[in-house]
Amino acid sequence: MTLTLPLRYPDASSPQLMTRRAWWLLIANFFLPGTAQVLAGNRKLGRFMLSLWLGGIGAILVLAILAFVLRGPLLFVFSTTLGITLVHLVLLFYVAMWVVSGLDALRLVRIIKLEQVARPLIAIVGVVLVAVPLVFAAVTSQVANQGKSAIEGLFGGASNGIQLPADGQLNIMMLGGDRGDDREGLRPDSISVMSFNAFTGKLTTIGLPRAMESFPFSEGPMQDLYPNLYEGCAVDVCYLNSVYTEATISEDGSYADAAEHGSEPGIEAMRDAVEGITGLSIQYYVLVDMAGFTELIDALGGVDINVTERVGIGINDDGSPGWAPATEYIEVGQQHMDGSTALWYARSRYETTDFARMERQRQLQEAMVATMTPGNLLGKIGPVTDALEKVVQTDIPEGMIGYVGDLLLKSRSGNSVRLDIVPPNFDQGNPDIPTIHAAVQDAIASDPPEATPPPEETAPAE
Asked: Do residues 78 and 155 lie in contact, with contact meaning Cβ atoms separated by under 8 Å?
């Protein structure tokens, strides 16, 4: 007699034996579906269930290994709607088999033969064990739908396609959009380039002052208009962030195909300007509308920043009626900031300089990246997704965002360098472009940590 015989051919006249058998079958089958069928039911079905389940465990182990050695390609697949849909369907199939196995296990325990006092308890436990995979299916379906919605909303439209790194670098132009009543349209208030080493993930962030003047463009419509330098422009001031406005309000048909690539004329003009200044080829852009920035920070649960200089919550005296000095401040020290406070921290010009503000914006950018962990995002996917769709615009396509995400994760452990193109190292009124190109290449080639600290200089008023 084998150990399985009492389970397959039990003494049905013994309620105690049948009760012990019921617990064994239900619990074992819950953790390893197919066990109850192999031991007490249809062995063919049980072997199929066990092979299916063991195959799934093997697949999970393989994916776990890939997450360490080939995370980029794995994230590429999981950042497409097709990839998420396929994974979701596979999970639903496993859940269906789990439920079928659980219901059959409940049938095999033969409740009528159990001890009378144990019958209701075992029936309830059996139903709960069947309900667990259904709850799992509901949760995974919600997460999958939110993930697909986020990908479709942010990356599912027109895009710049799959762009290969140039000279081993993947370069993304980051723009923080700023609107004002005294301005023509939107102007990027924050301009930088995130340049990733395509293999190691080393991040070189190049900060550019919004008030830079007399710079060249890379090949394109703006270079045709300004073949030498950006001077004598068609808007009120010829600053770097004015390029967006000029191209946006222009009616000459420049960058007519921008929409087909998930962009717009103002962004493409900024791309040409940033390429001309840095000497880098910009594959993608990300534009953040600061007007909705607070919602994104709040959805992430706030950010933690070490404040090194007191920041006033207010504006400088510009002669406007009713102006009053700041009465609230963001104090020095480690601060946990909600969306509203973080926005003031990044944008405040009160008794400070543009260059100090660039440094604060860099701190905020790093703090936000630090919050983008699976543990923090778990349970916040819906609100974060909704906020991202409102404030972020990009031409990064599906799949590629997974690769970019992998590079971001690699850059988090101190694998980054910062270069700010600001005085006194660089003249923003009459910049030496060859010197800037050389500095950018040196920063990309340098070992972290290395940075150009922002000096205490007064930026030109806009």
From this structure: no
Say which residue, 9 or 80, is predicted with more confidence: 80
Same domain, 100 and 182: no
Residue 306 belongs to domain spanning: 169-445
Residue 406, SS3 per DSSP: helix
Residue 102, helix vs strand vs coil? helix
The residues, any chain, with a CB within 8 Å of residue 155's CB and separated by 6 or more, are 79, 394, 396, 397, 398, 400, 401
Radius of gyration of the chain (CA): 30
Contact between 355 and 459 under an 8 Å Cβ cutoff? The reply is yes
- The domain total for the chain is 2
pLDDT 10s digits, 350-407: 888 777 887 787 788 778 877 877 667 766 777 887 777 778 888 888 888 888 888 8
SS3 242: helix
Measure CA of the first residue to CA of the last residue in the chain; give whole Å: 92
Q: Are residues 181 and 145 in the same domain?
A: no
- DSSP assigned state of 166: B
pLDDT in tens, 329-343: 889 999 999 988 988
Q: Full-prediction pTM beyond 0.70?
A: yes
- In this structure, which amino acid lies at residue 436? I
Task: Assess contact for 309 and 356: CB atoms under 8 A.
Answer: yes
- Rounded distance between C-alpha atoms, residue 132 and residue 451, angstroms: 52
Strand partners, 196: 170, 203
| Residue written as token pair 């005296």 | 317
Q: Which class for 126: exposed (0-12), middle (13-18), buried (19 or more C-beta within 10 A)?
A: buried
